[in-house]
Structure formats: structure tokens, C-alpha cells
Amino acid sequence: MPFVLRRIGFYIVAFCAAAVINFLIPRLMPGDPIDFMFAKAENTLPPEARAALLKTFGFAVGPLHEQFLAYLRSVFTWDLGYSVKFYPLTVSQVLGYALPWTVFLAGTSAILAFSVGSITGILAAWRRGGAFDSVASPLALAVQAIPAVVVALAALFVFGVALKWLPTGYAFDPKLDPGWSPQFIGSVAHSAIMPVVSLAFVHIGGYLVTMRNNMIGQLGEDHVVMGLAKGLSDRRVRYNYAARNALLPSVTAFALTIGSVMGGSLVTEVVFNYPGLGRTLYVAIVARDYPLIQGQLLVMTLAMLTANLAVDLAYVFLDPRLRRA
Amino acid sequence: MSGSLEVIFRNKKAVVGLAIVLAYVAIAVAAPWITEHAPMQRVGRPHEPPSMDQLLGTTRMGRDVFTQLIWGTRTSLFVGFLAGLIVTVIGVTLGITAGYLGGWVDEVINFFTNIALVIPQLPLLLVIAAFVGQASPMVIALIIGLTSWAWGARVTRAQTMSLRRREFIEASELAGEPTWRMIAVELLPNLLSIIGFNFIGSVIYTIITEATLEFLGLGDPNAVSWGTMLYNAQTSSAIMIGAWWEVAAPASFIAVIGIGLSLINFAIDEISNPRLRTLGTVAKAAKAQRAIDRARVDATAPEA
After folding, report:
1. A257 touches chain B (CB under 8 A)
2. Could you give the CA distance from residue A166 to residue A152 in angstroms, rounded to a whole number?
């Protein structure tokens, strides 16, 4: 499958680009982050941590190309140094704990938003100008312009503080022991309702509009008219003839919104005190924990590229032309 | 010109959207006359609920929420439009260059555009802002402007490439028009709807992103903007102690300007692609068709 191989090659290059940017940013900025971090950490860090930090950032150690090689080695061995805030934990340990929660939160919301948005978009296009279309479509336009932080704060206030229906923070009830017990899984699901739904909410509108517009384009095509003329059921024409073709641009839109779902998940986690990457990043920013902040960018880039790869595979499945090419 | 204005005013979405945006611009311009206090001045005790004196209550620091909201409008609109302008200029320049020149120039630009598209935006912005340290709204606008051009570049490039194959472009090329004239006179007018869409989309994106960055504590805490208002509310646990006004005011202001701007954007989309028009137009067409049918029936009825 040359298509998929080409994409994987591109993602490797993109990851290297992100790593280079990550290397350059602290070196282009004025001031010395090391001193700043040590001032913030208030002498809780031992001198060897300072040496490790210096090594990670490579400040004043050797010429630039040597610094870069050392940096590359640390990226590919995933030895990202110590976290200032969570010392003696390493950056990869801290991120390793946080990543699954973010993948769970962002993944569930992205899939929820995509399915709900696309199905409602199909229905809105099928009865264009009907009652459902005239309420749902303008509403979708309005909703997708509202930032995730606003939705999350509103949900927190209404359902968490005022009505007290759902927990206002944490990924599970802290009284429970983590494990595969039904109780624990129930608690995780219960705590996830608000973050997942409020994160998905922002993106539903975008999928609805994309799907509706593609569907309207498809409905005028000959093969759809032919399907109707043959006397196929509405259902069959709607889903197998029109929607399947209209889905391709929606899948592209899905790939493009992965980044914004991840960004939204950063904010949502902060609002709901959810223990994922976003929450960790927030803590890292407040503590000026630069190694952790930089590790985040690499991990999130990796997550984003993996998600993009999954979308490419979905594309191959949906579009038979790519299988032959 | 009056013809195109008429097209805009016939679209309800465009009218509502324009009204919202103009109202915000008016608020931003008139900020000193609408408010009585300076935005950072203490006017009451912490967390006073809305009253006649403090229309929208006070913050943890006893500052007037209404005053901060109005002055924050200035900051957010300024940041939004500045970054939107930067994004659009970079995106359109790269997009037209790549799409029009083609060849290796196109390959290079397209390569960088694709990479910029898959590196996650918000985390990148967060890292840059974290190293800048307490970024002022102006710096935030620059950072967003310089990192968010990829989508615009890609869309403009695609449209330029499809225009390039049209006959009128080939005809003017054969007629020997210079490159600047090809771009400024032949291509740009046909790209206007995409450029406008890109600009307004970038303004929305910037306003949301600025608020997010500041909410996460990367902004300058002494700046007055919607994002720092949310940040201060978050750090003082305003929601948990029931001081909803401190959060509701900036949150609803951000939501409404976002809606206003995206209404304009969808109007642009509808005007340039008539197939997408909703309800009003479809209903009107159906009504007109029924009237014609009835007239036809009436005309044939007496003879039958």
C-alpha cells in the first residue's frame, strides 16, 4: 500500500520538524529558563538535577550542532529528563500517567461528535428546508463558534455546582482503588460524562454543517437520482448512495479537527480537574516546568500523527480508488 | 458595488452577523464613555453580586466586572483583527505563490504547509507563550498570527490552482499580461470570498485562542481582556463559590462575538455557493413555483 507508506514517511518527517521546533524555541527566546526554573523551584532541586536540566536543554554546553545531536538522541531514546515540578519523577513517567486519560477523553469526544454530527447532518440535508434543518443547521453554526472553555465552564456551573448532578472534578472517585472492578469503571464513566459531552458539544456543529453541505451536493448527482428512480428505499439511497460518498470530505474534516479536539481537551481538563495531559500542562506552566512543557509538545504531536494515520487508514477503507493506486 | 451590497443585505445571516460585530466595535471604541471606573480600580468588596451600582457584580479583587468586560472587548477585538490580518496576508501570499507558480516553489511551500497542519496548534502556542513568559495581548496576536497560516495557505492554493486552468486566465497569459497584473487583476477578485472566509475564520480562532491561552495563565495578568478575566475567575474558584457573574460575563461575550463572526462567514459561503442556501431561499422558490402552478391551473380552468 504505497499510499499508507507515503503517509507514514511524511509523518516521520513532520515529527522531526516538531522536534526541531522544540529544540529551537528555548534557544531563540531571551533569558535563561534554567535560572528561572530554579528560582521557581525554591531550592528543592538537588544540584545533579540542575546538571540534568542543563544537559536536556544543552545550554552553554558545546556548539549548536553538538547540542542538537544530544537533543535528538534524548528524543529518540525518549529520555526527556526530569520534571521540575514532580521531581524525582522523569518527564516520560509524568506524561505516561497522563496520556491515557487524554486519549480516552479526546478520543471518546471526537468519535461522539463525529457520529452525532454526521448523522444529524445527513438528516438535515435529506429534508433540506424542513423543520429539523431550519432549527438544527443555524443552531450548529452558532454552537461551533463557542469556545470549549466557555462550554466547559457553563456545564461545570449548571450540572456540577448548581444542580449537583455530576462530579465537578477528577477522573474517578478518589475513595476507590484503581482496577478493573465494575465499581471503578462505573465511577470513571460517571466522571467522564461532563468532560466528554462538553468537549464533543463544540465540534458537533462543524460535522453537521460539513456533512449537510456535502450531502446536498451529492443529492443532485446522477447516481442518487438513479437510485431513487430504480425505486430503492429512501434509507438505502440516503445511506448507501449519498452518505457514503459525502462522508469522504467529512473524514478529512475529522483529521483536521483532531488538533482542535486535543486543544479543547487541554482546556476541558483544566476546568474539570481531569488528570490528563492538559491538566499536567497547566500545572507545568504554573510551575514553569520547561522540560515537562516541551515533552508535552512531542507527546501531543505523536498523538496527533497517530490519529492522522488512523484517519488515513479509514480513508483507504472508504475510498476503493486508494487501494488500487 | 451597490449590487453586491444588496446581495449581502438580502442574506439574513450576514445582516445579523454584521450587526453583532458592529455592536462590539462600537463598544470597543466607546469604552471610555460607557464605563465610570478604570478597569483595574477597586470599586467594592470582593464578589459582590450584580446590583444597580455594579451592573455585573465585582471580582475577587473587588473590581467592576462590567468595566473589565467593556475594556476587554477592546483588547480582544484588537488582538483578533491583528492576528487575523497577519494570518490572511501570510496565507494568501503563500497560497497564491504556490498555486500560481507551481513547480518546485509549490512543492516547497506545500511541504511546509502540510507539516504546519499536523503539528498540534494549541500545544505549540502554549510552548512558545510559556517561553516568552507573561505574553501581552500584542505578543499573543503576533504568535497566533505567525503560526496559524497553514489552513488559509492550503485553501487559497487549491482555489488558485483550479482558477489557473480556466480559460480566461490562459487567455490573459497568452495576451502577455505581466505576473503582478495576473495576480492582482485576474486572480485576486476571484479569490475574494475565500480570503474573506479565511480572515473572519482567523479572527474567530484568534479570539478563542487568546482567551484560552490567558485562561491557562500564559497571558499578562495585568492586561484587561476576556481571557484574563476567566483566568482570575478560575484562580479564585469563582464558580465553586457561586460567583457565576465573574465567569458568565466574559464567557457569553466571547460566545456571542464568535456566533456573529461565523454568521458572516456562513453568509459568505452561501453567497458564493448558492446551493447551500437554506430555508428562506428554498421556501421562497417553492412558493414561487406554487404560484406559477396555480396561475397555470387558473389559466386552463375556464376552458375545461
Report:
1. no
2. 13
